[in-house]
Amino acid sequence: SVSTYAEIARRIGNPKAVRAVGQALRRNPVPIVVPCHRVIASDGSLGGYGGNLRDRRKIELLKLEGVALA
Description:
By secondary structure, the chain is mainly alpha-helical. About 40% of the residues lie in helices and about 5% in strands. The protein has helices at about 5-10, 20-25, 50-65, and strands spanning about 5, 40. It has a two-stranded parallel ribbon. Helix 1 (about 5-10) packs across helix 2. The longest helix has 13 residues, at about 50-65. The protein is globular.
C-alpha cells in the first residue's frame, strides 16, 4: 500500500518527524525489500525521492505494482 511521510511519522509516534522519515527512507540500502518507493507526499506528489533518476525509478516501481499516479 502507499502511505505518506506524515502518516509514517504519526505511526512512529512523532508527527513532527516528517523530514526525518524522508531522510531515513532516502538512506534505505534495499528499496525493493523495504519499499520506500511507496511513500509519497501528503499532496499526492512523489515527494523528495532524491532526483530525476530516482523519481523515474519510483514511478516505474509504483506503476509495476498497479498504483495509479496522477
